[in-house]
From TrEMBL:
Source species, domain of life: Bacteria
Signal peptide feature range: none
Gene3D superfamilies to which the protein is assigned, alphabetical: Heme oxygenase-like (1.20.910.10)
SUPFAM superfamilies: Heme oxygenase-like (SSF48613)
Name used for this protein in its record: Biliverdin-producing heme oxygenase
Organism: Shewanella electrodiphila
A Pfam family it matches: Heme_oxygenase
Length: 192
């Protein structure tokens, strides 16, 4: 029997998640405001791709409240707080199909769980939800409650086998894109 979609996504992307986790930590995003600024540039590039996905009308009919979940604005506010400039992404900007987009959303919403750890680290360099780390704040319902509700919505989607495969591919693509932008912000540092 098929796993619920959220579990299939988790199983499919576990290894990739761990490699992203290690890559992010290796850039020591909370060692200084300078390092954190690079992390923000990567988050900005990631959430730019996600913005039209969160606003997609067809997906909004399937997933309640989707268009209120984009965190691009919060990332922009964090960048403004710290006077961080947008990084120009030096590669093709992904444009996922509707069903691949579901995997991108899984990746983005799930990243808010790990953000609990990142938010604690951010506080050590005086960043808070009021200054510089708004995009790492919890959803107003609480991280876990929101995540459970979001997963229920994913699991309630009626997908064909092909659409489900596309969602799994979308999650993989989203993690891969995040990795590429993290590498790019670090590379930019070396070339300055
Ligand atoms: C240093 C960086 C990161 C750390 C330490 C971290 C840590 C974690 C932890 C501890 C969880 C599990 C939380 C729980 O079940 O209570 C989690 C879940 C998750 N994280 Fe991360 N994470 C990091 C970065 C990211 C990034 C950059 C992304 C996406 C671009 C991401 C996507 C996800 C997803 C999708 C889940 C949900 C997994 C599931 O289906 O249960 N994480 N992360």
């Amino acid at each position: 029997m098929n796993l619920p979609l959220s579990e299939a996504l988790k199983k499919h992307s576990r290894q990739t998640h761990d490699s992203v986790d290690m890559l992010v930590l290796s850039m020591e995003p909370f060692a200084s405001i300078e390092n954190y600024s690079k992390f923000l540039q990567a988050q900005n590039a990631f959430h730019e791709v996600l913005k039209p996905i969160y606003e997609n009308p067809s997906l909004n009919l399937k997933i309640k409240g989707l268009n209120s979940l984009s965190r691009l604005e919060q990332v922009a506010m964090d960048m403004q707080d710290l006077h961080v400039k947008t990084m120009l992404v030096d590669e093709a900007i992904p444009s996922p199909s509707e069903f691949e987009s579901i995997g991108w959303l899984y990746c983005s919403e799930g990243s808010n769980l790990g953000a609990a750890i990142l938010y604690k680290e951010a506080q050590k360099i005086e960043l808070t939800s009021n200054h510089g780390a708004k995009h790492l704040s919890a959803h107003k319902d609480g991280r876990m409650v929101h995540w459970r509700k979001f997963k229920e919505q994913l699991d309630g989607l009626e997908l064909t086998l092909t659409q489900r495969q596309q969602a799994l591919k979308g999650a993989e693509d989203a993690f891969a894109f995040f990795k590429r932008v993290i590498r790019q912000v670090n590379y930019a540092e070396e070339t300055v």
